[in-house]
Each structure stands twice: as C-alpha cells, then as structure tokens.
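Structure in, sequence out. Go:
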C-alpha cells in the first residue's frame, strides 16, 4: 500500500528541492526516502528507480525553464529577446542549481521528444528570426547560444570567474553584446 500523501509528483518536487540543496548527482531514491522518513521500498510503488526520479526532475526543470523563457520572451525581439532568454537561464541556474544541472541530464529519445526541451529549441529559433538566419545557420546559432549560456553559467557557478576583475555581470553584458553583433553579422559558409 502506498503511503498516504506520497505521489510521483510530490516525490519529483521533493527530489528537485533535494537536488538544489545537495546537487543533482546526489539525488537517489534512498536519499528521498530519508527525507520522507520512509523505507525505500515504500517509494517503489511511485518510482521504479533513481533513473526515473532523475528523469522526472529533468522534465520538471525543463518545463520550469520553458515557462520562464516564454514569459520573458513575450513581446520581445532581437537583442532584447536575446538578453531576456540568456538571463532566464542564468537566473534559473542561480536560484535552482540542482534543477539547472538536471536540465542537462541526457534523456531517452522518447522522453526528450515529449519534453519541454522542444519548446526551448522553438523559442530560440523564434528569437533567431529577428536576426534573419536560415537553415543550417539557424541550427548552428541555436547550438552556439546554448553553448555560451551553459558554458558561462557553469563556469560562473563553479567559481571560475571569482578571482579577477571585472565583475561577472559586466562580462555577461559584454558577451551578450558580442553575441548580438555576431548574430547580426553571421559569417557566410
């Protein structure tokens, strides 16, 4: 019999909170059971294993990020949209480091196809229409933006920029200016 009040959704949210506290890699069904003061076996009526828990946290994180991005991009275009999208990723990573790490977790092709990751790509492509990019350059640009956003945020969160001036916000602003200029002047193949 399932413990009253425990549902896959509640366990997923608790797992996401745990990821933010201890790191996504540290999230397991056993650790979650300790959080609820239940035996691990009692969670297996809701979750198959830690892989399913991590997949559910990833799907939640992608959904949260996509919702924030949609709100931030509404009514914006060009550089304004680029800055808004970049700041969504950076702010989310700062507020929810474990969930942000989860958003990078490799999903099965089936889970990926049904995830909000598809919305992320669609929103980024919509943003790029303001820069008049066509395929395959649009795909290259989507990959560039994802690489820069994730790379910068990961290095910043890991303390990689904390040992020297200028302030990381100044660098972030300059990088977004440079990305805007690059997107406006995308090189020909």
């Amino acid at each position: 019999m399932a413990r009253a009040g425990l549902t896959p959704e509640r366990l997923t949210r608790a797992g996401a909170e745990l990821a933010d506290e201890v790191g996504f890699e540290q999230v397991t069904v056993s650790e979650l059971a300790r959080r609820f003061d239940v035996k691990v076996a009692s969670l297996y009526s809701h979750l198959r294993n830690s892989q399913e828990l991590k997949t559910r946290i990833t799907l939640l994180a992608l959904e949260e990020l996509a919702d924030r991005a949609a709100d931030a991009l509404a009514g914006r275009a060009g550089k304004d949209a680029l800055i808004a999208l970049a700041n969504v990723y950076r702010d989310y990573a700062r507020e929810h480091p474990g969930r942000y790490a989860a958003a990078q977790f490799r999903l099965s092709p089936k889970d990926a196809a049904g995830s909000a990751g598809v919305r992320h790509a669609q929103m980024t492509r919509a943003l790029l229409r303001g820069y008049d990019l066509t395929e395959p350059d649009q795909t290259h640009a989507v990959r560039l933006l994802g690489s820069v956003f994730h790379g910068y945020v990961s290095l910043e969160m890991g303390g990689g920029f904390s040992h020297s001036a200028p302030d990381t916000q100044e660098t972030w602003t300059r990088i977004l200016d440079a990305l805007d200029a690059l997107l406006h002047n995308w090189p020909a193949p």
